[in-house]
Amino acid sequence: MRLREYIIRKVISTFITIIVVLILLFIIFNLLGNPISIIAGPHTSLAEKEQLSSAYNIPINPWNIKQLPFYFGNYMTNMLTGKWGVSLTIETGVPVINLVLQRAPWTILLVGSATVLSYVIGIMLGIFLVWKGSKNIDSGVTISALFFYSMPSFFLGLSLLYIFAFRLGIFPMGGYYNTTYGTSMNSEIAVIGVAYTVIDILHHMILPVLVLTALSTGGNMYLMKQTLTGAMKEKYFMTAKVKGLSEWKAIRKHAIPNAMVPIASTIMISIGGILGGAILTEEVFGIPGMGLLLIDAILTRDIFVEEGTFFMLSLLVIFFNMFSDIMYVMMDPRTRF
Q1: Where are the alpha helices (DSSP H) in 66-95?
Q2: Collapsing DSSP states into helix, strand and coil, what is residue 94?
Q3: Which of 10, 42, 266, 312 would you call most buried, defined as having the most Cβ atoms within 10 angstroms of its Cβ?
Q4: What CATH superfamily is the domain 99-335?
């Protein structure tokens, strides 16, 4: 299969996946409760519900066989064109897509930093264990990494907050900037300048990034260890050593580049898992990302924010998986057929 054909097929399958996700979101959110009843509340009259139904283009009974096609078609069109409705409780009247886009940079900063660090540390540990690690060191590092890998993100986050923020006072208790300088980041910049604001944000982000990094490093370390061990058993590695290269040079020049192919292809896939951990991590540390927005929407039953945030998070996972598959095929010609 040619690369161009593969990419076209992947894009088509990605679009189909997006449609399936939207259908599932439609079914789930309408099964959880009548949208008009959620918006109106329990003590609203029928006349008021009809006004809300007209305002939001949502039938009072979404599962009415006569109204369902129109309602579903309107829902699909709006979701695909970015018309996700307005917030009902979190920021009343503000378009949901604006809320999501305002929160997305904080989630991207958190997830992106944790992804980079977890892969750098995991790859370095994997190489060290294969090259220099003794049996005792291997067991100790592996057990420690898997211990953090299996730990719930909220538990690790609360533990770090208690030790380093509450008891030792090294890090702030939460948030993403120092509110003593004002109620917005612009006010903080006006008081202490851009450079110190950046340092302040990084100071606030250390613990949440550390949580997600600790949860993800073990899997990356294990994968690097396994792929590198397999690469060192190949004939090209043996040939390099026979030609006089030291073991480290043979590993660095031949084994590591080949072992990095499957590692690189998993980076995008792992972002989906880190995003899942980021939802609770943002809640624990009070970071105003999409995860905290989603939790607030669920608690206040802001149905349009729920739909929009779920959809945005789903889009990120879907596209990262698509890029991962394409990247793997581009990096490894053996997969083309």
Answers
A1: 68-80
A2: coil
A3: 312
A4: MetI-like (1.10.3720.10)
